[in-house]
Design a protein that fits this description.
Strands 2-1-3-4-9-10 form a 6-stranded parallel sheet, with helices on both faces. It has a 3-stranded antiparallel sheet with strand order 11-12-13, with no helix packed on it. The protein is globular, with a radius of gyration of 21 Å. Helix content is 29%, strand content 21%. It is of the alpha/beta class and 293 residues long.
Length: 293
């Protein structure tokens, strides 16, 4: 299985190391690049024109590595990026996983439009004369002092235009039916609660929560890995209509007697899998004939 993990603002591919290690132990191919202008690529920060630059980063990784059936995971700002990638490479993407992340729904929608006003003001005050933003608020991202010190060491400035400029969307991203949103419950106030509230009752989304601060891949790497793997298991199931993706049970819809005296059983696949259906248990054909009983 192919996994591409996209980090959020001020971070780099390094933040996924524990999740990456666990996925690779399962024999999966994992790509966790640092986006242009961040981490070990921070010397390129002035080459960033906004989120579309980072979309191009991930598009090229998928194309040049000939990846298909990709589980694309985005954390925080990374949600902007994976949505843009899905818009361009729809046929290469099997599932989208938003980890406490932005979910843009309109072409050229900027992160600032979706963020809470307090955070927007905080970011605006942190903008430097060179158009970059210094990292702040580490205590909202992780709990332990050890992890806070690690973030202070590893995080690098982020281009301000990534938050003020929108991401280019074609609408093709809506064709991807496997979509997951993971909310970090202890991260408050947060702009990501709006997406949780929007999608928790939406049958086309699978929603999970984790009891941690914003950087769940650092705070709870095993739990994040488990949810990402669940997204890959769903690929084994046929692509049913979103209206039938309810909690994982198979129910007989009705019995109808045909003229031949045999019964046809219609199966209503209400299959919004929340972990209760084993991946090996494949949902089978739309209808089958059985002898009268």
């Amino acid at each position: 299985m192919n996994f591409v993990l996209v980090h959020g603002g001020w971070h780099g591919g390094w933040c996924w190391r524990e999740v990456e290690k666990r996925l690779q132990a399962g024999g999966h191919r994992v790509f966790a690049p640092s986006l242009t202008g961040l981490a070990e690529r921070s010397h390129l920060i002035h080459a960033v024109a906004g989120p579309d630059t980072h979309v191009e980063d991930i598009v090229r990784i998928i194309e040049f590595n000939s990846l298909s059936d990709v589980i694309l995971v985005g954390h925080s700002y990374g949600g902007m990026v994976i949505t843009g990638v899905a818009s361009r490479l729809t046929d290469h993407i099997a599932a989208l996983v938003y980890l406490d992340a932005f979910v843009p729904t309109e072409n050229h929608m900027a992160a600032n439009r979706m963020a809470n006003p307090e955070r927007v003001r905080e970011i605006e005050k942190a903008i430097q004369s060179d158009g970059t933003i210094l990292p702040t608020g580490f205590e909202r991202w992780v709990t332990s002092e050890e992890n806070i010190r690690w973030l202070e060491k590893m995080c690098t400035p982020h281009p301000a235009n990534c938050f003020s400029n929108g991401v280019t969307l074609s609408g093709n991203e809506d064709r991807i039916s496997r979509r997951h949103f993971i909310l970090c419950e202890h991260h408050k106030p947060s702009p990501f609660w709006q997406f949780y509230d929007r999608y928790k009752e939406d049958p086309t989304w699978h929603v999970s929560t984790l009891p941690c601060l914003h950087d769940a891949m650092i705070e709870m790497p095993q739990e994040v890995t488990d949810i990402i793997l669940e997204a890959s298991k769903l690929m084994a199931l046929p692509q049913y209509s979103p209206h039938f993706r309810r909690p994982a049970t198979r129910r007989l819809l009705r019995l109808r007697r045909s003229q031949s005296g045999r019964r046809r059983i219609w199966i209503n696949w209400q299959a919004r899998v929340r972990g209760s259906l084993p991946a090996s248990r494949r949902l089978w054909c739309a209808s089958r004939r059985v002898h009268q009983f």
